[in-house]
Design goal:
139 residues; alpha+beta; SH3 type barrels; Arc Repressor Mutant, subunit A; five-stranded antiparallel beta sheet; two-stranded antiparallel sheet; 7 strands
């Protein structure tokens, strides 16, 4: 399920890929609105599976970061994203990912990641280990 979730540049929130055609995709908002819309090839579209967080030694897939947060907090972030200070947001991220690359991961990235995490968990998408389970089954 996680591999079909994407973000569209210039549009807030996350979207689920429903189908694709020649010049466009049909997507549905992950949030409660479930609004469907076309996304064209000229729009910048990124699958969440293709996003990674830089660490001091490697790039960690976003899925793994979400899994760490989910295990640490049992699903719910311990702060309100809109009411928290930047220092609080960074301090919490350091507890989850102590070895993240501070030169390449910015506060805006951290905020966006928290926002995406909240959207996914609020809408029942919390299986962040799916890809590893599929790989283990294939072996």
């Amino acid at each position: 399920m996680f591999e079909r979730i994407l973000t569209v540049s210039g549009k807030p929130g996350l979207y689920r890929l429903l189908s694709s055609g020649r010049n466009m995709f049909v997507v549905e908002a992950v949030d409660a609105t479930k609004k469907r819309m076309p996304v064209y090839n000229s729009d910048k579209v990124v699958m969440l599976d293709d996003i990674a967080i830089y660490t001091d030694t490697e790039e960690l897939p976003l899925r793994a970061v979400f899994q760490k947060i989910y295990e640490k907090e049992n699903g719910v972030l311990p702060f309100d994203l809109k009411m928290s200070t930047p220092e609080e947001l960074v301090a919490y991220f350091e507890t989850v990912m102590p070895d993240y690359d501070r030169e390449r991961v910015y506060l805006t990235h951290i905020k966006k990641m928290y926002s995406w995490y909240n959207i996914l968990v609020a809408n029942g998408i919390n299986d962040f280990q799916e890809e590893q389970a599929e790989e283990a089954a294939a072996e």
